């Protein structure tokens, strides 16, 4: 990463391009958690993203995600929220793997032994979490700390859905943020308490497709600015209307 120091959430930190982690990648296995429909609750994680009829779960190490369909959730899927703690089993479907028998855990069950350092840093998102950009190889997002001094390479830190102060905030590449750094018992650092520093821009709604749409503001060359309906604050959007970011 341009000579910068990358703080990785795990030793390898690599995502899988097909979004289908192996049993070893989706860690956190525990025996004796009981079974349902032949599946043992061997894995734990956090709800990372929710779509119309399916979602993704971030593993305990914050470096991989696994697909699940709402039909395998034990409860009402409409009550799920990003960041909620869950446990589940894994099943093979061809070359891919997905979660089965997903159920919620009490809040705080997965409380990792992490120490949050008091310093607050400014930085820029270099890579979003994969559930916000399905085309990327790595699951974990990456934030680069603002320049710390002349001649120094600013460090980078990985982050997942649990790192965001607003779990509905679809952070994208180039977003300016403030964050802190946490370190676990093994000395692994990651970004946490990430909050976007927003500017307000007026743009026209160019298209709406189900739960997302695009604005006339060009985020990158040839790419219009994406938004999800969860980002809309009040009122009803229509093509040709104005939206602020």
TrEMBL record:
GO molecular function: RNA binding
InterPro entries xrefs: CSD, CSD_CS, CSDE1, CSP_DNA-bd, NA-bd_OB-fold
Residue ranges annotated for the CSD domain, each copy included: 42-104
First-listed, main subcellular location of the protein, grouped into a coarse class: cytoplasm
Pfam name, any one: CSD
Similarity comment text for this entry: Belongs to the UNR family.
Ranges for region Disordered: 1-38
Entry keyword annotation includes Cytoplasm: yes
Keywords: Cytoplasm, Repeat, RNA-binding
Protein's recorded name: CSD domain-containing protein
Subcellular location: Cytoplasm
CDD domains: CSP_CDS (cd04458)
A GO CC term assigned to this protein in UniProt: cytoplasm
């Amino acid at each position: 990463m341009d000579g910068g120091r990358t703080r990785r959430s795990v030793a390898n930190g690599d995502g899988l391009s097909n979004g289908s982690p192996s049993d070893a990648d989706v860690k956190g296995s525990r025996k004796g958690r009981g079974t349902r429909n032949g599946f043992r609750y061997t894995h734990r994680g956090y709800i990372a993203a929710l779509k119309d009829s399916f979602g993704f779960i971030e593993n305990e190490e914050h470096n991989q995600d696994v697909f699940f369909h709402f039909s395998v959730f034990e409860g009402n899927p409409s009550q799920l929220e990003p960041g909620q703690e869950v446990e589940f089993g894994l099943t093979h479907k061809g070359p891919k793997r997905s979660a089965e028998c997903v159920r919620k855990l009490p809040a705080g069950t997965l409380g990792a032994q992490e120490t949050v350092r008091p310093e607050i840093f400014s930085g820029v998102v270099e890579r979003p979490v994969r559930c916000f950009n399905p085309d990327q190889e790595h699951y974990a997002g990456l934030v680069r700390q603002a320049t710390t001094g002349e001649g120094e390479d600013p460090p980078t830190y990985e982050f997942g859905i649990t790192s965001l102060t607003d779990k509905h905030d679809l952070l994208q590449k180039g977003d300016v943020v403030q964050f802190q750094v946490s370190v676990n018992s093994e000395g692994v650092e990651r970004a946490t308490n990430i909050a976007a520093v927003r500017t307000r821009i007026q743009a026209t709604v160019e298209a709406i497709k189900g739960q997302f749409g695009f604005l006339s503001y060009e985020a990158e060359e040839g790419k219009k600015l994406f938004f999800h309906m969860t980002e809309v604050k009040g009122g009803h959007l229509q093509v040709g209307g104005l939206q602020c970011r």
